Amino acid sequence: MIAGSALRVTAADALNGASIVCDQSGALEVWTPDVPWSYALMLPVDAPDTLEESIVGVRARTDVEVLSGAAGMFLTDAAGRTALGEVVVDAARGRSTIVLDGSPASRRLCIRSGAGGAAHLRVHGVTTRLRRRFDITEIIDNVLPVMLRMPGEPALAAIASGLSSRLKRHVSAQDIGALECARAPIAVPFERVFDDPVGRVVLDETAQLTALLPTYDASKMDRRSGYLGPDYFEKFFRQSTIRVYHLIDQLRELGLSRGSVLEIGSLCGQFAMPLRRLGFDVTAVDRYRAYQGAYAGFVTHMRKAGVHVVETERHDETEIIAALGQFDAVISVAVIEHIPHTPREFLGMLASHVRPGGLLVLDTPNIARYWNRKRLAEGLSIHPAIEDQFHSTIPFEGHHREYTAQEMRWMLEQAGCRDVRTRMLDYNPLQYCELWADHVEALLATTVDPSLADTVLVAGQVSGDPESLSPSNA
Question: pTM for the whole thing?
Fold first, then answer.
């Protein structure tokens, strides 16, 4: 680790009329200009003059407290080229550690005002760490389950431990800036990913739903809207186990291991059934009457298990759902991306069915996922196939808009949620029995940078009436 010298600055280093004071504790107090997005200060970031080939980046950890307004922070090199990933921090966040990643050439930490102009903040310290590329070919079999289960810190901690043992020296998760693996294909250790009691329930229910696929009548569904055949659903069930697993774990992390759950958009019951088996009182709602019996086998399966299944159609679902009352948690998974207009009313409806202090939980595809970025880099669209949307009946029921984790967090806050938490998870690799080179590459990149994961799970505690959801406040 390189100790940062970033706080060795004077008032003369201020930009554009900003004010800088170093207080008795050694913290740096900054008042930015009263102009939106105006540079206030560029702090030097320590880095060696000569970099080894294995070094792929610089990570700066800033202990910062915004006292008023909002401030943006990002890294640049000596020529002023900006690294991706500006972080905007406001007073609501309190004192926190902001992590910024840049290229090996990063030399400055920039602070500027936010969209509202003047900001007052205190920088308590900055440390800098070089990040390196590591080859995990020899340990991949041991760490693959946790890599598949949760990208980011949990996976990197396991990899750092494995590397430390193999290299006979300490490797920190913070040292890992890129990964490589010379092996492919690699078998997917599906059973080892879900080796705890909750995971085993999810796996068992996945097997039961898969066994029901012969009862599914795909001819009654519109394939242009994403309703495909049994082969598609078999893969979808397998890969979605990770989504079910994390939703249950997120509920438990927020203090809910029993209680009433309303699921809007339950379809085959892949979430409703494990929740029911774990002791939750589950009400599952979908447009089953409009599906003309296509999912009758799954509906019967849920009802036999004690799930309260509510069948609706487009024209009556609003009235039927309105009469259902309030629940300890409301979940809606892989639904919000199908909303063809503002999601404001949909989120307001979901929040209205959460008892005060209860939980609202959604998941949705991450529009910034690895494969979307790859397609855009190749000049390809990331939206549904144009021929499907073009020839669909009205309304088109495919994906209208996908979201980033930041957007999902913001929308739940608008819906009246506090303590909003996000998780990034990757369900794509779990559909395969083996990972070939391109999917190994995607997994390695996502492990280091979870913003590349394909699914956003967001959860928050509903605290009150979401006034911001009214059209007049939009």
Answer: 0.89
